[in-house]
Amino acid sequence: MTVHQPSAAVGTTLDVLLRIHREVLESQDVGATDNFFDLGGNSLLAFRVIKRTAERLGVRVSARSVFTADSIRQLADRVEEARRAGRTPSGGSTAAAAHQGRASMAQEWALLSSLNDPDAPALQFHVAYRLRGPLDLAALHGALQTLTAQHPSLRTVFRVQDGTVRQHVMPEALPELFVEDVRRLPEGERTGEALRILDAEVRRPFDRYAGPLIRAHLVRSAPDEAYLALVFDHMGADGWSLDVLTADLDAAYRARLDGGRAELTDSGSYADWSARQWDRFEHGRIDEVAEYWKSQLGDDPSSIAIRLPGYRPNQGLSDPAALHLAVPGEVGEALDAVCRKLRATPYCVTIAALKALVAHQTGRSQVTLLTSSANRLEPEFQDTVGWFANGVFPTTDVDLGLPFDRFVARVTETALAATAHGDLPAWYVRRAMWPQVPSGFRKDPGIYFMFNELWGGSLRLGDLTVEPVALPETADSPGLHMWLLRDGTTLQFTALYYRSEYPDRYVHEFARAFLAAVAALARRPDQPMREVLRSGGS
After folding, report:
1. pTM value?
2. Apex CA 206: angle with CA 201 and CA 208, to 5°?
3. pLDDT in tens, 225-257
4. Beta bridge partners of 158
């Protein structure tokens, strides 16, 4: 037997890593011999460990190192190996200023699909805020320019050439800041009009041939109050990017006010990552990924096309709708308690409850849900702004005779495996598995689910009071799309759908059944799921 004798350096590294893990997992019950995933870790939390390790120890470790380390002590050894190999945080965002090359796989798919289907939904997203206090418009506009200069993906334009898409990173691009004023209106009408204006503006598509892929809309509603929306084309950023962008926007705004130099996030080039992705694809990674997913999903594409009992077939897609609910406090309390008890993440617990409910209502013995993977597996791209996120299809055999705690463990395994095989866009993987699947955007209805912290919720602009606000959302593809968002200590539930597929009444009933199932299964995790769901958990 070999006795592990860590060096003084590893001992110091281990102490820092233990503090990082206790912060990320929100638990002091973390020891050197513990396994990150046994304690409830997942891919999202792993990326936070990687980021804080780089910040505090000056070393970038790969996501693979975190995923495969048997213990935090072993991870400390790997951090030291990375230090000796010289893998320290290094910049590179400005190195791609003149880059010209092939667009990433997701970018190419999105642009070609939109050309073939002009009615396809615009792949863009936004965040909106209420600002209170003295706002310096010139400083805000300058901060947006600094932000665009720092992150090349936001100043990328595209050209179609011989059936492929080329990306060109422009040396500079001036982001738009649109300003409107509703202070002339009666006070009681200003907020509604401001949000109406922003709602219309965030839906306006981008010109991907001219750029930039970011713009801002500001509506003044009172002498020291305004509403701000930041809009991004998915071709240039994803949800994970928002925390980087909002932190840098704040730093740039403060620097403009103070006349200093902003300390901004410096990370790898998205264009370089795109080239690596195509290289992996062309050297057989698509075959490995497709083989894994085919082993999970089988030969029939309809395995991911779940239709709940309320589904109305053959009606086409019309009348998009949304449901927003504040999750009752007792549901959140039960969820937090069972996460601590099972050492599981809220995502794994809630997606397990949803799979159990779907199996209960449909009679399925295997449930495949659609979800997203952050897909930032390489350490030098952890903080890179770009479109990394991929759709994945975690599938789990469901035995409702199992107690919920055992089922959560099973779901956690499938979620981790999905993350490990989520590095290529879902559309390419589906075509490799099922060549008969038509090109373009997803046509079959399914169930999409995510559990997220509120992206971009931490924006600060100097001394302003910044409060996130929600703009109306509507469905843009078939099926039932659901999110649980944690905003501080509260949870918000959102469902997007088409009324031509699911009537309002059914979606509202299913949403209530889902939240009830989460609470009931969380309170009785050691009892058979079928009994819990039959006795009022659905």
Report:
1. 0.83
2. 175
3. 999 999 999 999 998 899 899 999 999 999 999
4. 167
